[in-house]
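Lab notebook: predicted structure, single chain.

Context: the supervisor wants predicted structures on file for every construct in the current expression panel, including those that have not yet been purified. This is the next one on the list. No modifications to the sequence; it matches the entry in the shared construct table.
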Amino acid sequence: MHKLKPASYEEFLEQFRVDAPETYNFAFDFLDKADPKTLAMVHVDPQGKRREYDFGWFQERSARLANALTAQGLAKGDRVMLILYRRVEYWVCMLALHRIGALPIPSPSLLTPHDIEFRVNFAHVKAAIVEDSVADRVAAALPKCPTLSLLVQVGAEPKADGWLGFEPLLASADASFPRTPDSPGGRDPMVIFFSSGTTGMPKMVLHSFTYPLGHYTTAAYWHDLEPGDLHLTLSDTGWAKSVWGKFYGQWLAGAAVFVWDFRGKFDPAELLQIIAEHKVTTFCAPPTVYRFLVRQDLKSFDLSHLRHCVTAGELLNESVFRDWQTATGLPIYEGYGQTETCLQIATFRCMNPKPGSLGKPCPGWDLVLMDDEGRPCEPGVEGEICIRLKEGGVLGLFQGYLDEPERTAKVIIDGFYHTGDKAWVDEDGYYWFMGRTDDLIKSSGYRVGPFEVESVLVAHDAVIEAAVTGVPDPVRGQAIKATVVLAPGFEPSDELTQKLQAWVKAETAPYKYPRIIEYVAELPKTISGKIKRAEIRQRDLEKYGAREM
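Prediction complete. Output recorded below exactly as produced.
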């Protein structure tokens, strides 16, 4: 693809084009046509060992895996759960499944057996390919997962019956998996991401085979990538953000991806040393990470190879922007999108960053801010970010919530996709994010739906009702707070709070636990019995304050 060098945002809009062939498949149309000797990835494992992989390696490994999985009965349309942290096998699996037309479901490494059971049954998952450290959790969920019939373990060789080892599976497989007339592509379904909602359990977001092309804008223009660049996006592979920043677009732009497979909480000083040691040139992380980084002695790290930085996922406060720019000489370019989309709004190199602003709409995305009556908003007036649909589709927009047409119909209305996010536009056309129209919580880069946490809390004997909201937090953006009504016989105490927090950590992914628990006699509700979360949030805002984030 030829990268433009626009002198202005207006010129960028006018000149930008991306063609989406009717049969496009990233594995066949990009990977197999790439120079096999070109660097694709620099990978640093949990022990700090660096390995480099070229496109030829991914071509061969993904073809072998595609043949091996096909021999095991996996076919086009089958659904496959992947829990692989940031292991290189994640990319091999994704590419192999693209060849077959089976649908990968990237999943976070923190899922509990309860989470796995729900997702497997909800998605009718046929196969799971997981790291050895996760296999026990999958095995614990297995008795209640009747559709799960193919189990592959990556890393140590499996000891349990019914599991296949990843490397032995590949060893005897053929290294060629050519395209056929029946190969998937174009508008065929390609990948499923789970996205947390606020009024129910997670949704399955379905994207087609043209989805990777939508990320060319992300990489070439927002990340500002050029051939020879080494790009680091910090995200775990269990989230859609990973394919935003460490896969399709970066390779299409001619860059290599840098993958640091750290485990547990990241260490800011270690991250800065990694960036310096491996000469990372472009970097993307949520504002929470930048907040930790600017507290380090940035001048003590050689960041001379770093030339461009971006952020998304939360609001970036101006003080972090200024501190980072003062120490590194680099502004931070913000962006916005969703699991359901690619990059929708961003600050590009041809624009002057306004700290705290998302930027302007990306080429190909016709955005309209709408009020509650469905009317376009004037500059300065808050409205919902909506995307105007067009004949032939919007490149990068999801196909719908899989198996849930009613949910899809609630967001695709009268020719528009309703994002559920609110913003306002200033006189220069820059978008400023206001928050969700619903109750989704964004904490430390994670998106948490209240219902997921509430359903775990009310399963405890001490809890009769719970409402989960986010409160302002100077480090995490938002901290998760639970407002709890106790069952008879239980009294509020610090000990009970610790028990409830431990309960949530044990029953669902630990990042979802409420850091604050408030005990009340009753929850505020509407006449129809719905919890008034807005009232709780307002009360919390008055109590905790709108502290700088």
